[in-house]
Design a protein that fits this description.
384 residues, mainly alpha, 2 domains, 15 helices, 5 strands
Length: 384
């Protein structure tokens, strides 16, 4: 890490590790003073308004509908956040492998990382205590890293060796950024958790500040980026800016990856935290608009298909089947039989009616059991 890059100590300072002969960054404790300006305040108001707008779109939904609706959004967030770390999995890859074994070993590992992110997110949202604790964050990390690359890097435990951010071939001296030391990590994380639980801080700014500080600490040996991004969605819900996680902010971060990385770096080196906050607020506004569009598209899809199939089938199970597709557009007749608790012939007849209307297509030679796909729904979920 080049000590000359760090021209401002507002967010922290560099320290020399004489044993390892390298510089590392020691973040200052929270809170940071934010320099308010008209642009920042305007963005904060627009972000809060955008969040309120998509949240209102779910107010009329039943609990079952909300559970159904949030599933594709969490998966989109999980896929995008994992792609930032280099995975190649698409939503289609992840969902399809839940029905058909993926033969490519590397893609199978990528898919597992996305599923772990999804499971960690669901755990965080469903089990979130009144006060966030360090142990709760550690447990989220354990679930994220379970059985995947990095499973041998002490999941759920703070680092005991110095880590670094840079190219694969870098060492601690050449890496672009060397975060907080293992010795400083415990007290910095205690400070961070206290800040998360501080209700006096503007929540819309807090989301960006917590993400910056978490990445500057980099408390775990692996998985820090994904945990940091997961915490942003969790905070949006905990701060009651959203009642259900229908935003996939990581897609914006992935699409603007260079800016994302550079702005984090500039916050540490130049003290430009306001620029990073502005970047996150813009992302919230953009992704809220995209979430609104996806919500409308999924609801329109459900409504049009249900109306269309009422003319083709008098079975009450048909509507349940259409809702089931939202969970996973890939399915077998056996899946329908088990989900709807009906006979095999009954499930087959329902699927055939959907197939006749080209709502689903049959994927040939995928498995001994015929695999079907709601292709138009999948297109909606994959679209960026």
């Amino acid at each position: 890490m080049d000590n000359n890059d760090f021209s401002n100590e507002r967010m922290g300072k560099t320290e020399w590790e004489s044993n390892g002969m390298f510089y590392y960054f020691k973040p200052n404790e929270l809170p940071f003073n934010i320099e308010q300006n008209e642009k920042l305040e305007s963005l904060a108001l627009r972000a809060a308004h955008a969040l309120g707008k998509i949240d209102n779109a779910t107010k009329k939904c039943t609990p079952n509908e909300i559970t159904l609706i949030q599933m594709p959004f969490i998966l989109k967030e999980a896929t995008s956040s994992s792609q930032i770390e280099g995975t190649r999995s698409t939503i289609s890859d992840v969902l399809k492998e839940e029905k058909v074994e993926e033969k490519n070993i590397e893609l199978r590992l990528d898919n597992e990382e996305v599923r772990n992110y999804r499971d960690a997110m669901n755990y965080a949202l469903n089990e979130s205590p009144e006060q966030i604790s360090e142990e709760f964050i550690k447990e989220i990390h354990r679930k994220l890293m379970k059985g995947v690359r990095g499973k041998d890097k002490n999941p759920g435990e703070y680092k005991i060796k110095q880590n670094a951010i840079g190219r694969r071939e870098d060492n601690l001296d050449t890496a672009k950024f060397v975060p907080a030391s293992p010795q400083d990590t415990p007290y910095l994380m205690t400070n961070l958790v206290n800040y998360i639980n501080n209700n006096k801080v503007n929540p819309i700014y807090k989301i960006a500040i917590v993400h910056y500080q978490f990445e500057a600490i980099h408390p775990f040996r692996d998985g820090n980026g994904r945990i940091g991004r997961l915490l942003m969605v969790l905070q949006l819900c905990r701060e009651k800016l959203l009642s259900t996680p229908i935003i996939y902010l990581s897609e914006y971060l992935n699409r603007n990856r260079d800016d994302y990385v550079n702005l984090l770096f500039n916050a540490s080196t130049k003290g430009e935290i306001e620029n990073f906050i502005e970047f996150i607020l813009k992302g919230i506004i953009i992704q809220c608009n995209k979430s609104q569009k996806l919500l409308e598209d999924i609801e329109l899809y459900r409504r049009e298909i249900k109306i269309k199939m009422r003319n083709k089938s008098k079975s009450y199970n048909m509507e349940h089947l259409i809702d089931f597709l939202i969970k996973n557009p890939f399915f077998t007749v056996e899946d329908i039989k088990e989900e709807l608790n009906i006979s095999q012939p009954g499930a087959w007849q329902l699927v055939q009616k959907l197939k006749e209307e080209k709502i689903v297509i049959e994927l040939e030679k995928e498995t001994r059991k015929k695999l079907y796909c709601a292709h138009e729904l999948l297109r909606l979920l994959e679209f960026e």
